[in-house]
Amino acid sequence: MTHRSIVALAIAALFTAACGGSTSDTTGGTPPAGQAIVVATSPAEADVAPGGTVKFGAQVTGTADGSVTWQVAEADGGTVDATGLYTAPAIDGTFHVRAVSVASSKSNGSSVVRVKKGAAAQVSVAVDPATATVPASGTKVFAAAVAGTTNLTVTWTVQQGSSCGSISSGGVYTAPNAGATCTVVATSAADTTKSGSATVTVTPPPPHVVAISPGSASILTGGTTTFSATVTGTTTGESTAVTWSVPAGAGTIGATTGVYVAPATPGTYTVTATSVATPSGTSTATVTVTAAPVIAVSVAPGTASILTGGTVTFTATVSGTSAGQSTAATWSVPAGSGSIGATTGVYVAPATPGTYTVTATSIADTSKKSTATVTVTAPPVTIAISPTTATLDACMGQVFTATITNSSNSAVTWSVVEAGGGTITNGAYFAPTTAGTYHVMAVSQADPTKTIQATITVGAEKVLSVAVTPGSGTVNATGQLAFAATVTTTCGTFAAQ
Question: Are residues 39 and 86 in the same domain?
């Protein structure tokens, strides 16, 4: 036996699968708690001519990291690249190709390679990646590396059949819509007895969770509120919509809009949102329906008294409305009752005195009204005198005028209040000869209760001039010349005595 053979046998003794398959060594590794990292290589053994190639694959379990590094155990046992492609040396011998877990360098698996002259090329297939985790209904692309033949074509299948999904001729795997552990197989077209596989862990879809907003609501009978729903946990292509429903007698709700209309009967009701994608996914909201308050209208002031043509402003208070209802009122009066601003409440009285009614009608409920009473009277007759005072000399005159308003009859009756206080005709007053304080009065003929006075202060008779005749004369000594004097006063002209 040569030295090289002894060394080869000693190394081979370190492996336990000389002819029975790949081996895995996990001594000294640090796998997750309660779980060992295991590395399995494929094919487990291969025969190859010197200089030939074999493609190996590795499957790692017990860790999420499925990557490995490739080694040839023997220094002269050939080479293996990072993809697991082994190239045999130029010499015969038995060698070992090893895959070492990146997650734990103490965990590895190996395959036996027998290199001998004249060995037929052995077809091998390796699937990359060897393990994969795919969500339900998700996809993953696999590749197949074929060695030992120039025909690199493979046929892809799912070992468990359609219940575990499907795979295209290009290696695109589509997972089922439920959780499962599946095996993807690539079979060599050159040698259908040779295949490679990968393990696929299909994670189940998350549960569809429906959330309603708001979770509860309080509205009045006949009122409305809008609900919205959010659906989580759907996968690509699944609907995120819901269908809305309420029990019979619980009001109505738009099946797609979520707009809820409360029933006429107060109570507590349930609104349900059901996932379109998964009818088992539902959520509910609670609606508390209370009786709507009765609308009432009040008008202020309740009564008013104004003159014909006058104005007064009314206000209306509408109570008992619910959210969204108008609190305004519309104003109106019967024909011939004056006018009122429909929105302002400003009332203008008619020209005819009388008692009239103003009405305020609720916009929210036109059956609810309130009224106010307006008493319209004609304006009173008034009288004015001008001037209101006068100062005169005895026997002098003053013209007074009287003005009547609110009546078509402008006539007045004139008089002097004090006896001997002078005279007045049609407003023309003449003072007496006696000094004193006197009053003239005007009485409305339209309304004799309406009178007015002016005060006159009369002074003493005033001398205006004195005339002497003749104005000049000639007289002899001791002779005589007669003169006459004429005095003019405010009361007239008189001969001097």
Answer: yes
Average pLDDT over residues 164-188: 94
Please tell me the predicted confidence (pLDDT) of residue 307: 94
Confidence (pTM): 0.37
Report CA 156 to chain centroid distance, whole Å: 55
**Boundary residue ending a domain (180, 203, 226):** 203
If one compares 71 and 56, the residue with the highest pLDDT of the two is 71
By C-alpha distance, which of 201, 134, 144 is closest to 170?
Answer: 144
Q: Are 286 and 262 in contact (CB under 8 A)?
A: no
What is the token pair recorded at 28?
Answer: 């000294």
- Specify whether 440 is located in the same domain as 419: yes
Choose the final residue of a domain: 290, 314, 346: 290
The pair phi, psi for residue 337, each rounded to 5°, is -105, 20
Sorted by sequence, the CB contacts under 8 Å of residue 273 that are 6+ apart come out as 210, 212, 227, 229, 242, 243, 244, 258, 282, 283, 284, 285
- Pick the more confident residue, 497 or 341: 341
Q: Do 312 and 359 lie in a common domain?
A: yes
How high is the pLDDT of residue 320?
A: 87
Coil, strand, or helix at residue 22? coil
Residue 189 sits in a domain whose CATH number is 2.60.40.1380
Question: Is 18 in the same domain as 64?
Answer: yes
Arithmetic mean of pLDDT, 270-281: 91
CB 111 within 8 A of CB 46: yes
The Cα-based distances of 177 to 65, 109, 174, 278 in angstroms read: 25, 33, 9, 12
Task: Specify the pLDDT at position 33.
Answer: 55
Query: CA-to-CA distance for 95 and 112, rounded, in angstroms?
Result: 6
* CB-CB neighbours of 284 under 10 Å: 15
pLDDT at residue 25, as a whole number:
52
Number of domains making up the chain: 6
Longest dimension (CA), the chain: 216
Q: How far is CA 303 from the centre of its chain?
A: 44
Choose among 116, 120, 123, 78: nearest CA to 97: 78
- Among 326, 400, 411, smallest CA distance to 362 is for 326
9 pLDDT band, cuts 50/70/90, is very low
Q: Are residues 8 and 114 in the same domain?
A: yes
Range of the domain at 361: 296-377
- Please say if the pLDDT value at position 198 is more than 60: yes
- Strand segments (E) across 406-450: 412-416, 423-425, 428-430, 436-444
pLDDT band for 44, please (50, 70, 90 cuts). Answer: confident
Choose the most confident range, by mean pLDDT, from 133-137, 165-169, 488-492. Answer: 165-169
In this structure, the answer to whether residues 174 and 275 fall within a common structural domain is no
Which of 172, 178, 180 lies closest to 200, judged by CA? Answer: 180
